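Quick start: what a row looks like.
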Amino acid sequence: MGRWTRASCRPGTLAGSSGIHNPIVWWIDDDGTWRLVDNNSPFEYVSAPFGNDPIAEVHAFRWLGLVKIRESAYGITVRWHVQSVAPRAIEEVADFLTRHADCRAVRLTFFFRGWASEIHSSADQAVARLRQVMAYRDVEIFDGVSVQPVGLEGLVRSGSLVRRGFAAWERSRGLLTRYDENPLSGFLPKLLVFRPRERDGRLVFAHAGPRSASAAVWGPEWAANARGQESVPDKDYDSRVADSATKVLEGDEPRLDHLRALCVRDNGEAIWCPYQRLTLPIHFKDGSKGVGVLSLLTQNVDIPFMANAA
């Protein structure tokens, strides 16, 4: 990185507050030096230091300990690898955010066994969270699926999608059709529907909404071809969460859970997925039964993540 222009303009004002609407990107290296990405530079190592290659950027986080900061009128995004980041680089980030206490939003995207992304409404809040996360640098954490039943009383503090979905299920009395007059039909783009397979009674996908949380994680191609499948691509993840649908089918009662799961995509990328999950017993016009699952990806779950390091 020796040839890369050293940033003499250590950021002092937010792009948004100075009237600049084009995003500005910096990399902070292991000695705490800010290096501006200049899209107008004729030198590729300045205009695209990692060739705009996501894999090369991941290597920069993992093996070089760098931090990437993107600043725009909408706020600041910080990306880093918790266990590999250079101490000088992360301290520069904390100092930068402290000096921008008026920032409207800060997104922290960090890697620890998988990528996690959180949005904080103030720079002070983001700095506190950054330091909290960094306390886990040398701590082993549980990387499986955490499930926290919250009960239907938790609906009042659930996201709008979950609350509206439950209200539609009540109005429809559990009946799901594709007709417009059916209250649940409007949720089909975001709904997963399971039905027992005729030969063995195992639940399989009857429908996977293209805008469902699962489609956001596993991709639209998976959603389009999910019908008849027993599981999502990550079999370890699936085996640890599928039993709730069976329990709802057998008990004929809805349930609300909060989950935090490490999901591994087909390309090997691991991401942390916190979400609220509403599981509903449903029936169809022919009298057969099934299960509907409505999930909302959100950081507002009752499962702390890297929050209480010793």
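That is the whole record. The longest strand covers residues 270-283. Confidence is low (pLDDT under 50) at residues 1-9, 13-20.
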